[in-house]
């Protein structure tokens, strides 16, 4: 399942993990998603939403 917020479309970011010895390897920062039962198009549906959208009030919980 994709790590994407259904409201804002935020996805994971990619970058490098750098050790003290400056060894470089790829890493990824995932989005903090929560399953929420919300009102979507007049009905109730379970969607995966990031916590920033929940705190901002962009989601109407059912």
CATH class: Mainly Beta
Record field, number of beta strands: 4
What's the CATH topology label?
Answer: Ribosomal Protein L24e, Chain: T
* Helical fraction: under 10%
CATH architecture: Roll
Shape descriptor = elongated
What key attributes describe this structure?
single chain, 62 residues, two-stranded antiparallel ribbon, elongated, 1 helix, Ribosomal Protein L24e, Chain: T, mainly beta
Structure description:
The chain has 62 residues and is mainly beta. The chain has one domain (13-56): Ribosomal Protein L24e, Chain: T (Roll), CATH 2.30.170. The chain has one helix and four strands, in the order ββββα. It has one helix at 51-56, and strands at 13-18, 24-29, 33-40, 43-50. Strands 1-2 form a two-stranded antiparallel sheet. It starts with 12 loop residues before the first strand and ends in a 6-residue tail after the last helix. The model has no long low-confidence stretch (mean pLDDT 95).
Write the layout of secondary structure elements.
Elements: E1 13-18, E2 24-29, E3 33-40, E4 43-50, H1 51-56
Antiparallel strand pairs: 1-2, 3-4
């Amino acid at each position: 399942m994709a790590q994407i917020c259904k409201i804002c479309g935020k996805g994971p970011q990619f970058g490098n993990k750098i050790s003290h010895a400056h060894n470089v390897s790829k890493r990824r920062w995932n989005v903090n998603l929560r399953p929420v039962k919300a009102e979507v198009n007049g009905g109730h549906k379970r969607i995966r939403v990031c916590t920033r959208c929940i705190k901002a009030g962009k989601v109407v919980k059912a």
